[in-house]
Fold each of these.
Amino acid sequence: MVDTDWKSKMMSSESPKLSSKLHVTIPSPFKVVAVSSPISCSAPAACSAYELYLRLPELKNLWSSRDFPRWSNEPILKPSLQALEISFRLVLSVCSDARPYINHREWNRRLDSLVTSQIQLIASICEEEDDQSAPVSDGRSSLSLLPQLATWRKTESLGKKFLCTIDNEMRRCKYTLGLGEQNVSNKPNLRYDAVCKPNGLYRLKDNPYADHVDNDENQTLYVLHQILESWIHASLSLLNRIDENINEERFGKASSDVYLLERIWRLMTEIEDLHILMDPEDFLKLKKQLQIKSTGKNDAFCFRSRGLVEMTKMSKDLRQRIPKILEVEVDPTGGPRLQEAAMRMYARKKGECDKIHLLQGMQAVEGAAKSFFFAYKQLVAVMMGSSQVSCDSLSQIFMEPTYYPSLDAAKTFLGEFWGNLG
């Protein structure tokens, strides 16, 4: 029960007082309760086998190299560009597949969407740069696969479309990627070859099973997960930057990065969905050839990715920054201190817009992360049969209560107040 004159009271330093004028249902509890996360890595042996199959130790060396120490965006943009370059290799691989039963039409549509989504995300990352230290020049890339895609008969339409997309999406950035796009604005080109290192990626084009596993889906599975892991690595650097910006009270920048993180989660769902286009029998045969087995009911295959587990935990731990953003301490007695601060912020608006945008983005990340695991569970059922979908911890992730109970309570109050007004 709360006073209907809550808004004017929220504009002052006092908290809303209780009265009998309006009955509202507020979700409980108001405070974040420390509970163990339902997500943890698979057995070390399974994780190591996954990493060796993808040649992750070598790939991590490429992601983590710091060739331009003054360029603050390098830790995020480098693995993002490498994911894009690996995607060009996926396009070549799929379009070279001679199996008559492959759905080439749908593959082309999905690959177009995948590469376009990555270009848009990379452009957004570049757009957020506020320093002048990005490595640029007048030259173009001589090592990327994209110019080859734009000239080979089977991939020409896709390749030219990607070049047009780069031109269009990079128009608000201070430089362009330098992959052969028209660049009508004559902006400087990113030193793509020096940043992305396409030659290094090319040396990792074959997985350790390439010589003795006779299965066309082997390369597709390998490349898809290299793309996924590259974006996971980029997201970990992004999460560190979000935390740093919140600590320094740069809430506008943190808000922009949080929305980038949400888009990465949704991109990862799009990457995983490409498994649907793999031939069912060839995929299940490959599963046997690679000896991919579940070791228990709580061992989802995705938990073999240590990076994904870390990304999930760090995304969830953004909730620990709520007191910093709202500038209040958690009430040790469980009172609605955070909820009341959120209500005041939502009502005041003036001077609080960056914080509101940040909190909305954090809740969007929660939704995108939970959607990823829900979609992954359905994907496993489609690809391997429902008998493989028995992972309790996987279900717990997307069925967990909200990460932000105080924000949820504040919005529930506001919704019921306005619903009952008049």
Amino acid sequence: MDKKGLRAALLLSAFFMLLGSALRSIPLTEQPLRRWLIHGGHILNGLAGPTIMSAGPFLSTTWFAPDQRATATAVASLSSYLGSAASFVIAPLVVPAPNRTWSSPYAVAAVSDSAIRDRIQLVMYAELTVIAVLFAAVLLYFPSRPPMPPSVAAASQRLSYRTSICRLLSNVRFLMLALAYAVPSGLIAGWAGVLNTVLTPAKVSQVDAGWIGFWSTVGGCVFGVAMARFADSIRGMLKLILVLMLAGASLSSTWFTLTCLSSFTHLPSTAAILYTSCILVGIFINSSVPIFFELLIETVYPVPEGITCGVATFLGNLVSGLLLIFLTFYSTDLSWLNWCLTGSCLFSLVLILFFRESYDRLYLDVFVSV
């Protein structure tokens, strides 16, 4: 992305997504072969992830003026979260939960499995159609950069790949900020994936859990864009915004965790309290993503945006991967996962409080342009 431009990187990512969706949509009856195709499709889809997740800051720097960059980063980075929000609603509505209440369990299991399999296949076909349309759109028109750079930073030279990696790994401030981003964002990604199981002890249905995940993700997108617009209007205050967001995430996650343990804590555990605390967790953590990206780039400039956000995204995915490994061994009682989420928010808040901010890219744009 940094060397060949945004068009080439996005076109390759869209092709990976198209090929991966096509592989997992092939309706084979041989389960072993289809299992390999589904895993291969997911791997191809995962290869597209780094560009899609970290291209927002590169896009905003290339196309937008300094007083619009945080907003553009928020829109580009958080728009992919809308797909996750839609999955919370579509999953329980399109693919029903297994029905085990009929008198003949053997007949029910056969019918239910067949119906669920057909619905999942329908979802895969729909995703393949959407991705094919997006691939065609990128192929027909997606320029890498505007005719004229919108800022001094957009036209300035960046460091080489090897130099950038060495500088990132030796920069303590970058590592502090990257960990502060990766730990809570990676944990909430895995936590949201099993939200239905997390809320089961609180007697929350699959459909209600889906709506909670939907509103927490959508709320994070809306609040994130609003805070990014606020950051553009008062530039140089990204650390303060992150401190407030992470403090809110720490309080709301603690509230949610203690509410889920109401039998021990004797705190009120109504549906409204449970829904509000859970939605607030998603809002505060998800909305912090574009602010983290902007501060990461400001901290290590002139390291290219793609490498900077790519390393941070890799760390976040690594945290999610480790969490999924733990879930394979400790999947019966997930109360520990709520405590991990609370601890990750507090850990990130402490790192940000001790972080020393700098705005090298903003300094270049403001003073050199003047």
Amino acid sequence: MSIYRNAVWFVKGLQEYTKSGYEAAAKHFAPSDLEVNLSGRSFMITGANSGIGKATAQELANRGGTVHMVCRNKSRAEAAKEEIVERSQNQDIHVHILDMSNARQVWEFAQSFSQSSSVHVLINNAGCMVNQRELTEEGLEKNFATNTLGTYILTTALIPALKKAEDPRVITVSSGGMLTQKLNMDDLQFEKGTFDGTAAYAQNKRQQVILTGRWAAQHKEIHFSSMHPGWADTPAVQTSMPSFHAKMQAKLRTEAMGADTAVWLAASAAATKQPSGLFFQDRKAVSTHLPLASSRSSPQEEEKLQAALEEFALKFKP
């Protein structure tokens, strides 16, 4: 089944996820959707110093938003901030240093941020694809710790602050790669069989899409969405998937194209006219499953995922 899923997904990707796929979709965009003034609105973006995260930060800064860049590397974050400020002439850009794979740190950051600042929009963009199985200092598999548990803790810890804001939103940058995966509750940390970093990443991205749907049902005051940026030419793709990058380079989207839907979901009035909890590609809600792919999970399994993450989260809560 996974061979079928991978083949169908790759054909779909060549048509839709590439630069030409974006250009075809963009013919139907309403340019006025992003003609907005974001002054007075606060945006938190994880992994904001390069790639999709940086491009998103730039677009929001250009429109006057207050941007909180949550990054792991201080020097790279400061360099990115300087560039964003220079291009946007917006001084309201702030850097916060945080390793999203460290659960305790994520808790501490979210708690202290909530006490000192407001947030209208959270963009869960930070992610990693580690191709060898590696444990964090807290003993968690690194992809799971960063992509799923870090995202879970940051989002749930900021929900009370988001509920105090006007028009609060949470956007999670997932990946179309999740279409190749069915939720696997038996092996959350990839301890069984041969480790495959690409499959682990795609499994994490499936988990993010499931969480988005569950949060939307549980927190009606907040607009939740997940999205696929398409196949973009980012530093992360170059380092994590070098052979894919080499083969596909001419067809890959720019970082700005990859960020477009995240920006639209974060900033436009049109986005919140869509129901909460959906998965978007090129400003349109799309299916979270390939045809005939048997990738759906039961509500019980999805509930089990949330319960397991809550248990992990509480274990590391300060």
